[in-house]
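Memo to structure team: turn this sequence into C-alpha coordinates by end of day. - J.P.
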Amino acid sequence: MKKVISGNEAVSLAVKLSRVQVISAYPITPQTTISEKLSEICGSGELDARFVKVESEHSAMATLIGAASTGVRTFTATSAQGLALMHELLFWISGARLPVVLVDVNRAMAAPWTIWCDQTDSVAQRDTGLMQFYCWSIQEILDSVICSFKIAEKLSIPCMVCFDGFFISHTYEPAEIPNQKDVDSFLPPRKAETYLDTKNPLTFSGGTLPNNFMEFRYKIQKAFERAPEIIDGVYNEYEKQFGRSYKDIEQYYIDDAEAVLIASGSAASTAYHSVRNLRQSGRKVGLLRLRQLRPFPEATLLSLLKPNVTYGVLDRNLSPGTGGVFTQEIRSVLNRHGRSTRVNEFVAGLGGRDITEKNIVDIFDKLKSGDFEISGINWINVKGK
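Reply from structure team:
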Protein backbone atom coordinates (compact mmCIF):
# COMPACT_ATOMS: atom_id res chain seq x y z
CA MET A 1 0.00 0.00 0.00
CA LYS A 2 1.34 3.43 -0.95
CA LYS A 3 0.75 6.37 1.35
CA VAL A 4 1.99 9.96 1.53
CA ILE A 5 3.70 10.31 4.91
CA SER A 6 6.34 12.40 6.67
CA GLY A 7 9.73 11.16 7.78
CA ASN A 8 8.62 11.11 11.42
CA GLU A 9 5.43 9.25 10.54
CA ALA A 10 7.52 6.67 8.68
CA VAL A 11 9.35 5.95 11.94
CA SER A 12 6.12 5.46 13.88
CA LEU A 13 4.70 3.11 11.23
CA ALA A 14 7.94 1.11 11.13
CA VAL A 15 7.94 0.73 14.92
CA LYS A 16 4.34 -0.44 14.80
CA LEU A 17 5.08 -2.92 11.99
CA SER A 18 8.09 -4.20 13.95
CA ARG A 19 5.82 -5.06 16.89
CA VAL A 20 7.94 -3.22 19.44
CA GLN A 21 6.91 -4.12 22.99
CA VAL A 22 8.25 -1.22 25.09
CA ILE A 23 8.62 2.39 23.94
CA SER A 24 9.89 5.24 26.09
CA ALA A 25 10.58 8.74 24.78
CA TYR A 26 10.61 12.38 25.79
CA PRO A 27 9.43 15.08 23.36
CA ILE A 28 12.02 17.33 21.69
CA THR A 29 11.80 19.23 18.42
CA PRO A 30 12.01 17.99 15.65
CA GLN A 31 11.46 14.45 17.00
CA THR A 32 8.28 15.18 19.00
CA THR A 33 5.71 13.93 16.50
CA ILE A 34 7.31 10.46 16.57
CA SER A 35 6.68 10.01 20.29
CA GLU A 36 3.24 11.65 20.01
CA LYS A 37 2.16 9.28 17.24
CA LEU A 38 3.53 6.22 19.02
CA SER A 39 1.73 7.24 22.20
CA GLU A 40 -1.52 7.40 20.22
CA ILE A 41 -0.87 4.03 18.56
CA CYS A 42 -0.22 2.37 21.92
CA GLY A 43 -3.13 4.11 23.61
CA SER A 44 -5.60 3.06 20.91
CA GLY A 45 -4.51 -0.56 21.07
CA GLU A 46 -3.19 -0.59 17.46
CA LEU A 47 0.11 -1.79 18.91
CA ASP A 48 0.24 -4.12 21.90
CA ALA A 49 3.07 -2.24 23.59
CA ARG A 50 3.81 -0.33 26.77
CA PHE A 51 4.50 3.38 26.24
CA VAL A 52 6.38 4.66 29.29
CA LYS A 53 6.16 8.40 29.96
CA VAL A 54 9.26 9.83 31.60
CA GLU A 55 10.68 13.19 32.65
CA SER A 56 13.82 13.17 30.47
CA GLU A 57 15.71 11.42 27.71
CA HIS A 58 18.10 9.97 30.28
CA SER A 59 15.14 8.30 31.99
CA ALA A 60 13.77 7.11 28.64
CA MET A 61 16.93 5.17 27.92
CA ALA A 62 17.19 3.95 31.52
CA THR A 63 13.67 2.55 31.11
CA LEU A 64 14.68 0.70 27.95
CA ILE A 65 17.76 -0.75 29.65
CA GLY A 66 15.45 -2.46 32.11
CA ALA A 67 12.96 -3.50 29.44
CA ALA A 68 15.53 -4.79 26.95
CA SER A 69 17.19 -6.78 29.73
CA THR A 70 13.99 -8.81 30.07
CA GLY A 71 14.22 -9.87 26.41
CA VAL A 72 11.58 -7.63 24.81
CA ARG A 73 11.92 -5.41 21.69
CA THR A 74 12.46 -1.74 22.58
CA PHE A 75 12.56 1.68 20.90
CA THR A 76 13.12 5.37 21.55
CA ALA A 77 13.68 8.55 19.55
CA THR A 78 15.30 11.90 20.29
CA SER A 79 17.28 14.85 18.90
CA ALA A 80 20.29 17.00 19.79
CA GLN A 81 20.37 17.91 23.51
CA GLY A 82 18.16 14.90 24.23
CA LEU A 83 20.69 12.58 22.62
CA ALA A 84 23.46 14.29 24.59
CA LEU A 85 21.51 13.68 27.80
CA MET A 86 21.40 9.96 26.89
CA HIS A 87 25.17 9.86 26.33
CA GLU A 88 26.06 7.98 29.52
CA LEU A 89 23.45 5.31 28.87
CA LEU A 90 24.43 4.80 25.24
CA PHE A 91 27.66 3.31 26.55
CA TRP A 92 25.53 1.17 28.86
CA ILE A 93 23.26 -0.34 26.19
CA SER A 94 26.30 -1.09 24.04
CA GLY A 95 28.34 -2.57 26.87
CA ALA A 96 25.35 -4.62 28.07
CA ARG A 97 24.78 -5.84 24.47
CA LEU A 98 21.15 -4.63 24.42
CA PRO A 99 19.70 -4.34 20.88
CA VAL A 100 17.79 -1.09 21.46
CA VAL A 101 16.86 0.82 18.30
CA LEU A 102 17.15 4.59 18.61
CA VAL A 103 16.09 7.17 16.01
CA ASP A 104 17.94 10.48 16.08
CA VAL A 105 16.26 13.26 14.12
CA ASN A 106 19.38 15.30 13.49
CA ARG A 107 19.43 18.77 15.07
CA ALA A 108 22.33 21.13 15.75
CA MET A 109 23.71 21.32 19.26
CA ALA A 110 23.37 24.46 21.40
CA ALA A 111 24.75 26.99 22.23
CA PRO A 112 23.38 29.18 20.73
CA TRP A 113 19.94 27.56 20.82
CA THR A 114 18.62 26.30 17.52
CA ILE A 115 16.04 23.77 16.44
CA TRP A 116 17.50 23.41 12.94
CA CYS A 117 19.53 20.63 11.42
CA ASP A 118 23.05 19.42 11.29
CA GLN A 119 24.61 16.04 12.11
CA THR A 120 26.88 17.06 14.98
CA ASP A 121 24.54 15.50 17.57
CA SER A 122 24.80 11.96 16.15
CA VAL A 123 28.45 12.02 15.05
CA ALA A 124 29.39 13.09 18.58
CA GLN A 125 28.12 9.66 19.75
CA ARG A 126 30.24 7.62 17.33
CA ASP A 127 32.42 6.15 20.09
CA THR A 128 29.55 4.91 22.27
CA GLY A 129 29.23 1.55 20.49
CA LEU A 130 26.00 2.06 18.53
CA MET A 131 25.69 1.30 14.84
CA GLN A 132 24.72 4.43 12.91
CA PHE A 133 22.73 4.59 9.65
CA TYR A 134 21.92 7.81 7.71
CA CYS A 135 18.82 8.13 5.51
CA TRP A 136 17.87 10.52 2.71
CA SER A 137 14.23 9.59 1.97
CA ILE A 138 11.00 8.72 3.76
CA GLN A 139 10.97 5.22 2.24
CA GLU A 140 14.52 4.60 3.38
CA ILE A 141 13.64 5.67 6.93
CA LEU A 142 10.77 3.20 7.15
CA ASP A 143 12.81 0.34 5.71
CA SER A 144 15.92 1.15 7.77
CA VAL A 145 14.05 1.11 11.09
CA ILE A 146 12.57 -2.32 10.34
CA CYS A 147 15.95 -3.67 9.20
CA SER A 148 17.71 -2.15 12.22
CA PHE A 149 15.71 -4.27 14.65
CA LYS A 150 16.84 -7.41 12.85
CA ILE A 151 20.45 -6.25 12.56
CA ALA A 152 20.61 -5.19 16.22
CA GLU A 153 19.11 -8.44 17.48
CA LYS A 154 21.39 -10.61 15.34
CA LEU A 155 24.50 -8.85 16.68
CA SER A 156 23.26 -7.86 20.16
CA ILE A 157 24.40 -4.32 19.34
CA PRO A 158 22.14 -1.23 19.53
CA CYS A 159 21.34 0.75 16.37
CA MET A 160 20.85 4.44 15.69
CA VAL A 161 18.89 5.50 12.59
CA CYS A 162 19.55 9.14 11.71
CA PHE A 163 17.93 11.63 9.34
CA ASP A 164 17.90 15.40 8.94
CA GLY A 165 15.48 17.36 11.06
CA PHE A 166 12.82 19.27 9.11
CA PHE A 167 14.52 18.65 5.75
CA ILE A 168 13.35 15.02 5.99
CA SER A 169 11.46 14.63 9.28
CA HIS A 170 8.67 17.02 8.25
CA THR A 171 8.78 16.43 4.50
CA TYR A 172 6.00 14.34 2.94
CA GLU A 173 6.63 11.78 0.20
CA PRO A 174 4.87 8.69 -1.11
CA ALA A 175 6.15 5.52 0.56
CA GLU A 176 5.29 1.86 0.19
CA ILE A 177 3.95 0.56 3.51
CA PRO A 178 4.72 -3.16 3.91
CA ASN A 179 2.02 -5.62 4.84
CA GLN A 180 2.09 -6.63 8.53
CA LYS A 181 2.13 -10.32 7.66
CA ASP A 182 5.19 -9.83 5.44
CA VAL A 183 7.02 -7.85 8.14
CA ASP A 184 6.21 -10.59 10.68
CA SER A 185 7.79 -13.11 8.31
CA PHE A 186 10.91 -10.94 7.88
CA LEU A 187 11.19 -9.89 11.53
CA PRO A 188 10.08 -12.59 13.99
CA PRO A 189 9.81 -11.84 17.73
CA ARG A 190 13.06 -11.18 19.55
CA LYS A 191 14.64 -14.27 21.11
CA ALA A 192 17.22 -13.14 23.65
CA GLU A 193 19.83 -15.72 24.65
CA THR A 194 20.03 -14.33 28.19
CA TYR A 195 17.52 -12.15 30.00
CA LEU A 196 16.21 -11.29 33.44
CA ASP A 197 14.24 -14.27 34.69
CA THR A 198 13.31 -14.98 38.31
CA LYS A 199 13.32 -18.70 37.55
CA ASN A 200 16.90 -18.54 36.26
CA PRO A 201 18.72 -15.85 38.29
CA LEU A 202 21.78 -14.28 36.62
CA THR A 203 23.93 -11.21 37.28
CA PHE A 204 23.91 -8.53 34.55
CA SER A 205 26.50 -5.75 34.15
CA GLY A 206 27.79 -5.99 37.69
CA GLY A 207 31.17 -4.83 38.95
CA THR A 208 34.02 -6.14 36.78
CA LEU A 209 37.71 -6.44 37.62
CA PRO A 210 40.48 -5.44 35.16
CA ASN A 211 41.23 -9.08 34.32
CA ASN A 212 37.77 -9.38 32.70
CA PHE A 213 36.70 -5.91 31.54
CA MET A 214 38.89 -5.81 28.43
CA GLU A 215 37.37 -9.04 27.12
CA PHE A 216 33.93 -7.41 27.11
CA ARG A 217 35.23 -4.64 24.85
CA TYR A 218 37.02 -7.20 22.69
CA LYS A 219 33.74 -9.03 22.08
CA ILE A 220 31.98 -5.79 21.13
CA GLN A 221 34.73 -5.04 18.62
CA LYS A 222 34.49 -8.53 17.14
CA ALA A 223 30.71 -8.07 16.78
CA PHE A 224 31.32 -4.84 14.85
CA GLU A 225 33.79 -6.67 12.62
CA ARG A 226 31.04 -9.20 11.81
CA ALA A 227 28.48 -6.46 11.29
CA PRO A 228 29.10 -5.71 7.57
CA GLU A 229 28.29 -9.31 6.63
CA ILE A 230 25.20 -9.36 8.86
CA ILE A 231 23.98 -5.99 7.55
CA ASP A 232 24.42 -7.07 3.91
CA GLY A 233 22.57 -10.30 4.64
CA VAL A 234 19.63 -8.46 6.21
CA TYR A 235 19.45 -6.00 3.30
CA ASN A 236 19.55 -8.87 0.78
CA GLU A 237 16.76 -10.64 2.64
CA TYR A 238 14.75 -7.41 2.73
CA GLU A 239 15.21 -6.90 -1.00
CA LYS A 240 14.00 -10.42 -1.75
CA GLN A 241 10.87 -9.89 0.34
CA PHE A 242 10.05 -6.24 -0.39
CA GLY A 243 11.95 -5.38 -3.59
CA ARG A 244 14.00 -2.49 -2.18
CA SER A 245 17.77 -2.73 -1.79
CA TYR A 246 20.29 -0.77 0.28
CA LYS A 247 24.09 -0.65 0.49
CA ASP A 248 26.55 0.85 2.95
CA ILE A 249 27.72 3.25 0.21
CA GLU A 250 25.49 4.01 -2.78
CA GLN A 251 26.98 5.04 -6.11
CA TYR A 252 25.67 7.50 -8.70
CA TYR A 253 27.42 8.23 -12.02
CA ILE A 254 30.90 7.31 -10.79
CA ASP A 255 32.11 4.91 -13.54
CA ASP A 256 33.80 7.60 -15.66
CA ALA A 257 33.69 10.49 -13.18
CA GLU A 258 36.65 12.85 -12.94
CA ALA A 259 35.34 14.48 -9.75
CA VAL A 260 33.21 12.78 -7.08
CA LEU A 261 31.43 14.26 -4.08
CA ILE A 262 30.92 12.13 -0.96
CA ALA A 263 27.87 13.12 1.11
CA SER A 264 25.13 11.82 3.41
CA GLY A 265 21.59 12.70 4.44
CA SER A 266 19.47 15.31 2.68
CA ALA A 267 22.58 17.03 1.31
CA ALA A 268 23.24 13.90 -0.74
CA SER A 269 19.77 14.29 -2.27
CA THR A 270 20.61 17.83 -3.36
CA ALA A 271 23.98 16.60 -4.64
CA TYR A 272 22.31 13.84 -6.65
CA HIS A 273 20.15 16.33 -8.54
CA SER A 274 23.15 18.60 -9.11
CA VAL A 275 25.22 15.70 -10.45
CA ARG A 276 22.40 14.64 -12.76
CA ASN A 277 22.08 18.18 -14.14
CA LEU A 278 25.83 18.58 -14.55
CA ARG A 279 25.97 15.27 -16.41
CA GLN A 280 23.42 16.60 -18.90
CA SER A 281 25.77 19.52 -19.60
CA GLY A 282 28.68 17.14 -20.20
CA ARG A 283 30.48 17.36 -16.84
CA LYS A 284 31.96 14.04 -15.67
CA VAL A 285 30.98 14.23 -12.02
CA GLY A 286 29.61 11.65 -9.60
CA LEU A 287 28.32 11.04 -6.09
CA LEU A 288 29.00 8.52 -3.34
CA ARG A 289 26.34 8.50 -0.63
CA LEU A 290 27.52 7.29 2.78
CA ARG A 291 24.77 5.43 4.66
CA GLN A 292 26.85 4.26 7.61
CA LEU A 293 29.16 5.89 10.12
CA ARG A 294 29.39 2.83 12.39
CA PRO A 295 30.46 0.31 11.35
CA PHE A 296 32.38 2.53 8.96
CA PRO A 297 32.20 0.98 5.45
CA GLU A 298 35.96 0.66 5.12
CA ALA A 299 36.16 -2.21 2.63
CA THR A 300 33.54 -0.72 0.32
CA LEU A 301 35.19 2.69 0.42
CA LEU A 302 38.60 1.28 -0.47
CA SER A 303 37.11 -0.62 -3.40
CA LEU A 304 35.41 2.50 -4.81
CA LEU A 305 38.03 5.24 -4.49
CA LYS A 306 40.24 5.59 -7.58
CA PRO A 307 43.69 7.22 -7.74
CA ASN A 308 43.00 9.54 -10.70
CA VAL A 309 39.72 11.01 -9.43
CA THR A 310 39.36 14.25 -7.44
CA TYR A 311 37.23 13.77 -4.32
CA GLY A 312 35.37 16.18 -2.10
CA VAL A 313 33.59 15.30 1.14
CA LEU A 314 30.56 17.36 2.17
CA ASP A 315 30.19 17.39 5.97
CA ARG A 316 27.08 18.76 7.67
CA ASN A 317 28.86 18.53 11.01
CA LEU A 318 31.94 19.90 12.71
CA SER A 319 34.40 18.57 15.28
CA PRO A 320 36.05 21.86 16.34
CA GLY A 321 39.81 21.77 15.94
CA THR A 322 39.61 18.80 13.56
CA GLY A 323 36.90 19.50 10.98
CA GLY A 324 34.18 17.41 9.39
CA VAL A 325 33.80 13.97 10.92
CA PHE A 326 33.07 12.01 7.73
CA THR A 327 36.18 13.56 6.13
CA GLN A 328 38.34 12.52 9.07
CA GLU A 329 36.94 8.98 9.01
CA ILE A 330 37.69 8.62 5.31
CA ARG A 331 41.20 10.04 5.66
CA SER A 332 41.87 7.69 8.57
CA VAL A 333 40.94 4.65 6.46
CA LEU A 334 43.14 5.80 3.60
CA ASN A 335 46.10 6.48 5.90
CA ARG A 336 45.80 3.06 7.59
CA HIS A 337 45.98 1.35 4.21
CA GLY A 338 48.74 3.52 2.78
CA ARG A 339 46.49 4.98 0.10
CA SER A 340 47.53 8.34 -1.37
CA THR A 341 44.03 9.28 -2.56
CA ARG A 342 43.34 12.88 -1.55
CA VAL A 343 39.92 13.80 -0.14
CA ASN A 344 39.13 17.50 0.15
CA GLU A 345 36.97 18.78 2.97
CA PHE A 346 33.88 20.98 2.57
CA VAL A 347 31.77 21.96 5.59
CA ALA A 348 28.27 23.29 4.91
CA GLY A 349 24.74 23.49 6.23
CA LEU A 350 25.52 23.85 9.94
CA GLY A 351 22.57 24.93 12.06
CA GLY A 352 20.13 24.25 9.25
CA ARG A 353 21.63 26.60 6.68
CA ASP A 354 20.52 25.58 3.18
CA ILE A 355 22.81 23.50 1.01
CA THR A 356 21.70 24.52 -2.45
CA GLU A 357 22.37 23.11 -5.91
CA LYS A 358 24.50 26.21 -6.52
CA ASN A 359 26.63 25.26 -3.50
CA ILE A 360 27.15 21.78 -4.96
CA VAL A 361 28.05 23.18 -8.39
CA ASP A 362 30.50 25.58 -6.71
CA ILE A 363 32.16 22.62 -4.97
CA PHE A 364 32.59 20.78 -8.28
CA ASP A 365 33.95 23.98 -9.87
CA LYS A 366 36.49 24.25 -7.06
CA LEU A 367 37.47 20.60 -7.41
CA LYS A 368 38.01 21.14 -11.14
CA SER A 369 40.02 24.37 -10.80
CA GLY A 370 41.95 23.44 -7.66
CA ASP A 371 40.82 26.71 -6.04
CA PHE A 372 40.26 25.40 -2.53
CA GLU A 373 42.03 24.76 0.76
CA ILE A 374 44.03 21.57 0.36
CA SER A 375 45.04 21.19 4.00
CA GLY A 376 42.21 23.05 5.70
CA ILE A 377 38.42 23.32 5.84
CA ASN A 378 36.57 24.73 2.84
CA TRP A 379 33.59 26.60 4.31
CA ILE A 380 30.58 26.71 2.01
CA ASN A 381 28.04 29.53 2.16
CA VAL A 382 29.59 31.27 5.18
CA LYS A 383 28.74 34.95 5.40
CA GLY A 384 31.66 37.10 4.33
CA LYS A 385 33.43 34.27 2.48
